[in-house]
Amino acid sequence: MQLLTLELEDDYLLIGIHSTEEDYRLAYLLNKHLKTKLVRFKQHLDFKNSTAEFPLFEYKDERNFINYYLINNKYSKLVNNTKNKGLFEENYITVLNLIPEKKNVDFFLKIEGCNQQNLMITLVNKLNIINQVITSYAIDTNSLKSKNNLIF
Question: What residues contact 4, with CB distance under 8 A and at least 6 apart?
């Protein structure tokens, strides 16, 4: 008997964005420059075995059947350090990443329903014009080990 395997290609494009802006401010800037209408999603992106929550903004372009998602890659958590007494008894902040292998990326722009590389190039060029964006670039999703974190 022959065994059939199914390999699904990723039906989305991914752009990494470096910026020091807050997520709501970056969403506003993207709306202004990309002519999108990103709004805050009701729930955060979270996972069963983790306490991290990642804010999510979405825009559904119903005319072109394309969905845009702005996702924060970093979650900061204050840890109360009550176990150690002495020199290191202070509280500290830990940072968890949605995509750990891309920990320098601040935000991801996920575009679902489109695999056109010319759209990716256009978006990256428009993002790099924004003064508050340090840089942005296309990310190959096949090279990501934790790309399942982007399925929601």
Answer: none
